[in-house]
């Protein structure tokens, strides 16, 4: 959202704009007929500009609610707010990654504090889109609907190069219920997160910075991390003792610096000016996602936004880029400033950016017809921290603190969601005494750093094509031979249509699903158990990939998706594919029910209902299952499992998605972050026992350790 909501009335059953003030502002809506005032009063509000620049149409503004969104630095701190000196986790930074970690840990009832240098959340601009995979995580967390109902879904993609149309077709889509890229600004996403935290009685401590971090080497220390923080507004200092520290403090991360993690990569001389405004143009595809490039003038990316706005990313080259470099006056405060991307001293005006945009767009013209909702200049930095976790696993970084890259692919906000989804459950299970932290926590660095490497390679190659840059990809360290796994072929940039078209075909054949989040590198860790390739596997899915989300039936009057049986943040989902529970498969499922879910099986050994969510996928209609599931040898699965009905045609059902043998069935372990962990035959309990024993503690041991 880039500007305050218009005043509406719903008197006819739908929203209609009106010229009068909205009812919530009128004093008459806060008193009874005899003058008694309502107990509810309006929270403090303010009107703030959305951009640091204005034009002949004035200054764009957006209503803010600091007492709701800013945290403890806003007006009065609630009397109930008493931040503890000792916590399980201290989160340093309240951008997307920090807030995502917070809302996940809140769902685990983990004791934490979250601090941030800024006086409030993002007010406008910044990240602009959410990928389908990220929305699947928000759905599991219970907040996806808020994110999908703000801006448009990108349905079409158009790409012109040197006046030649190279592509005009549907944007990449996938089998997720969310299909493709959804438009929403980072400021809206942060407000969704903050509202969620308020429901959990969590406030962000604003205007607060980290001064120092010390990790005790005493193995007997309950809270080995000692962090000194300072409130910039009051000057008050505080000491927080924590079991773990999360570095979510952005590209110039202080936490990354304190743990000595080099930020490998490169800073380019490629600048993007970003202007968001109402625009009039004769370009015929202004309502679609477009890329227009010129080997002479650079490129632009065009995104339709909510409220009738358009965002233009404009590549700045030549003398303009040199001037921006020359006028950058920001001093480098510490070694970590190497990763920062935003240029606060712009060195270029919106009018100059529009002139450059029209040079790129020629023969089409673009004119600004309203206030500038957001204006920024960004320098492309391509970097990945050499490690995402400290050697003792007490400090972990994510989001921009761990990796920065170009805007191509919208990976900034989305990668932070993936980082948080990966780390939060591992941290929480370790804190609760249910897991072996020395085994589980290192998998965060292994899995997420390799993903970040692919982001750098893919978005970097795409950037070089769009901007006509003859520049090698960033050199990264600490990935050994795995670095080459994601090498991207750079464009030839010889000006020929054939070479451009060939490169695009090759690039998107490898990266189309990666650019919308559903594809990613498969990392060999203790969590992703690979089946013996010499034997027939229970499923066609590889371990370490996204678990598919097919449509299923939940009862005679409700259908939805399989993920609706896999909500929440902390449980392993045990998917039991049972075909129609007749013939040879029935005996195998009964064996799993009796032994796997019995008193000595993995289910009760490693935590029972607190650790596992069992889902029985039955091939048939709801009434048919009653004839087959009533016998005593299926008592355990009948009482413990959520039953879903796979009643669609064979070419679109869940058994097909997962590649299941109907005669043998299968048991699939899906991790809390909705990634396939392993699969086995229903009768093979040893595989399940060994898998969970590798990183989980048995329930009795976990209870003693937690006490």
Automatic annotation (TrEMBL):
Question: InterPro entries from the xrefs?
Answer: FAD-bd, FAD/NAD-bd_sf, Phe_hydrox_C_dim_dom, PHOX_C_sf, RIFMO-like, Thioredoxin-like_sf
Q: Enumerate composition-biased segments (Polar residues).
A: 37-56
Query: Region annotation Disordered: residue ranges?
Result: 19-56
**Record's keyword terms, sorted:** FAD, Flavoprotein, Oxidoreductase
Family of the protein in this entry: Belongs to the PheA/TfdB FAD monooxygenase family.
GO MF entries: FAD binding; oxidoreductase activity, acting on paired donors, with incorporation or reduction of molecular oxygen, NAD(P)H as one donor, and incorporation of one atom of oxygen
The beginning of the lineage is: Eukaryota, Fungi, Dikarya, Ascomycota, Pezizomycotina
What this protein is called in its record is Uncharacterized protein
Q: Annotated pathway, please?
A: Secondary metabolite biosynthesis
Q: Report the residue ranges that make up the Phenol hydroxylase-like C-terminal dimerisation domain in this protein.
A: 539-698
Q: Does the keyword Flavoprotein apply?
A: yes
Stored PANTHER family: 2-MONOOXYGENASE, PUTATIVE (AFU_ORTHOLOGUE AFUA_1G13660)-RELATED (PTHR43004:SF20), TRK SYSTEM POTASSIUM UPTAKE PROTEIN (PTHR43004)
Q: Which residues cross the membrane?
A: none
Native organism: Xylaria multiplex
Looking at the keywords, is Phosphoprotein present? no
Q: Which residues form the FAD-binding domain?
A: 86-458
């Amino acid at each position: 959202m880039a500007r305050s909501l218009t005043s509406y009335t719903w008197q006819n059953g739908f929203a209609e704009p009106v010229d009068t003030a909205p009812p919530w502002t009128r004093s008459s809506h806060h008193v009874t007929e005899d003058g008694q005032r309502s107990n509810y009063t309006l929270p403090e509000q303010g009107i703030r500009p959305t951009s640091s620049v204005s034009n002949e149409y004035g200054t764009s503004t957006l209503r803010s609610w600091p007492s709701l969104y800013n945290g403890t630095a806003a007006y009065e701190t609630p009397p109930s707010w008493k931040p503890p000196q000792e916590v399980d986790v201290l989160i340093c930074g309240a951008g997307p990654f920090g807030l995502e970690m917070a809302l996940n840990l809140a769902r685990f009832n983990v004791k934490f504090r979250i601090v941030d240098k800024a006086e409030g959340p993002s007010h406008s601009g910044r990240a602009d889109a959410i990928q389908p995979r990220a929305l699947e995580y928000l759905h599991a967390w219970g907040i996806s609907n808020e994110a999908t109902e703000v801006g448009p879904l990108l349905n079409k993609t158009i790409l012109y190069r040197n006046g030649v149309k190279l592509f005009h077709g549907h944007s990449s889509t996938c089998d997720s219920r969310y299909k493709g890229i959804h438009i929403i600004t980072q400021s809206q996403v942060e407000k969704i997160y903050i509202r969620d935290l308020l429901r959990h009685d969590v406030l962000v401590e604003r205007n607060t910075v980290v001064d120092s971090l010390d990790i005790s080497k005493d193995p007997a220390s309950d809270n080995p991390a000692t962090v000194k923080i300072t409130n910039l507004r009051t000057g008050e200092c505080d000491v927080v003792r924590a079991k773990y520290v999360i570095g979510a403090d952005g590209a110039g991360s202080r936490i990354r610096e304190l743990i000595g993690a080099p930020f490998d990569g490169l800073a380019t001389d490629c600048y993007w000016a970003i202007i968001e405004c109402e625009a009039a143009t004769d370009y015929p595809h202004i309502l679609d996602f477009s890329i227009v490039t010129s080997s002479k003038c650079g490129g632009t990316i065009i995104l339709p936004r909510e409220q009738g706005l358009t965002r233009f990313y404009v590549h700045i080259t030549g003398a303009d880029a040199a001037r921006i470099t020359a006028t950058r006056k920001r001093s480098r405060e510490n070694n970590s400033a190497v990763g920062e991307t935003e240029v606060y001293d712009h060195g270029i005006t919106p009018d100059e950016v529009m002139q450059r945009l029209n040079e790129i767009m020629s023969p089409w013209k673009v004119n600004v017809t309203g206030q500038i909702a957001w204006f920024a200049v960004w320098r492309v930095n391509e970097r990945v921290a050499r490690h995402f976790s400290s050697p003792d696993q007490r400090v972990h970084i994510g989001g921009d603190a761990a990796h920065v890259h170009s805007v191509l692919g919208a990976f900034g906000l989305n990668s932070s969601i993936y980082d948080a989804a990966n780390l939060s459950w591992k941290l929480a299970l370790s804190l609760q005494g249910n897991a072996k932290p020395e085994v589980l926590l290192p998998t965060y660095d292994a899995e997420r750093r390799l993903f970040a490497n692919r982001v750098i390679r893919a978005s970097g190659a795409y950037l070089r094509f769009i901007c006509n840059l003859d520049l090698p990809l960033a050199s990264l360290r600490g990935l050994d031979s795995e670095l080459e796994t994601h090498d991207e072929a750079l464009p030839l940039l010889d000006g020929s249509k054939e070479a451009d078209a060939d490169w695009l075909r090759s690039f998107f054949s490898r990266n189309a699903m990666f650019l919308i989040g559903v594809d990613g590198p498969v990392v060999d860790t203790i969590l992703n158990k690979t089946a013996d390739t010499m034997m027939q596997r229970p499923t066609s899915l590889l371990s370490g990939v996204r678990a598919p989300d097919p449509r299923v039936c939940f009862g005679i009057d409700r259908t939805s998706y399989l993920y609706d049986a896999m909500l929440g943040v902390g449980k392993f989902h045990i998917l039991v594919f049972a075909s129609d529970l007749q013939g040879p498969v029935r005996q195998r499922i009964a064996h799993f029910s009796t032994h796997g879910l019995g008193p000595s099986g993995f289910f009760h050994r490693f935590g029972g209902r607190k650790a596992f969510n069992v889902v029985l996928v039955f091939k048939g209609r709801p009434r048919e299952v009653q004839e087959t599931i009533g016998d005593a040898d299926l008592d355990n699965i009948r009482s413990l499992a959520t039953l879903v009905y796979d009643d669609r045609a064979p070419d679109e059902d869940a058994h097909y998605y997962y590649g299941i043998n109907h005669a043998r069935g299968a048991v699939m372990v899906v991790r809390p972050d909705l990634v396939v962990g392993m699969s086995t035959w229903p009768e093979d309990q040893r595989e399940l026992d060994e898998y969970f024993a590798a990183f989980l503690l048995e329930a009795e041991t976990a209870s003693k350790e937690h006490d």
